[in-house]
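Shape matters. Shown next:

___
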Amino acid sequence: MSASLDTGGARAHRPRYALIDIVRGIAIIAMIVYHAAWDLWFLQFIQVPIAFDPGWIAFQRTILSTFLFLVGTGLVLGHGAGIKWRSFWRRFGLIAGGALLVTIGTYFAFPESFVYFGILHAIALFSLFGLAFLRLPIWLNAVLGLVLLILPTLFTSTVFDAKALSWIGLWQTAPYTEDLVPVVPWFGGVLFGIAGTRLAQRTGIMDRIARVAPADPLSRALAWMGRWSLVIYLVHQPVLLGILMPMAMWLEPEIEARNAQFYGSCVASCEDSAGGQAAYCTTYCQCSLDRIEADQLWPLLDPGSVRTEDDNDALVDLTNQCAAQALTGMPALEAPAE
């Protein structure tokens, strides 16, 4: 039996909608792309702040919205004519079990920011909540979804800052965690999915969607990924990290990132204080970087470091010699013999 991120009924009770599987397959590929970019940033292969960049945030939220809309779609298709409790609890157990695995895995990997209410936790709970909304008028589900969407802009409270209540949403300061998908506003996506799918049923759109069949290898592959999206979701991060972490240990991208950050900051600061003399600043900063590397002075640049008199003398000596080199155009200094 296939396992996926939707919460529809068993295959024996309804046909599969290939187009919905294809959309879910595209969404899982997009999620893999996002997580791959996040991993590259986390391991310092790239310097784009994936977790804070507006474009990447919009990309991540689009993916999340797609999955939650499809949760509502699956509820309508699987249980709109009557809740099939056996198939519901079976699928609920699969998703809740996957959520538990995510919590355990991230607790060991990131104990200070482990995932306690991420996308799978949300899908499990939202699927249960969603059953109560299947028979409401279409317009009411749409209105309630809109209310949940805009509610965080109208009301927040520090009460919801606590981790125990943060899964509800409405916090003023987001808790420290790798992933959090709270009820407000994200359950609104499920309500939009319920309303949209019921409207599509009423207007005959779902009948047309049901007749769509994968006709080429790409669409068949996407449909397959959509059917197995839960399994793919659970294994893709361990696979990505299993590839990237050994590469990071070998290539040490954090060293290049550290050097680039130091050099860029040094040049900018120097040009501000030296009246924009770019040639002087590039020579001075490159000399400083070379000396810091050769003499292993990085610990002295840590803001929290405790420096001895000898440490301070070493930094003063570095500054003076590199300033002299920048002024005279002398070749790069040789590292002191050990």
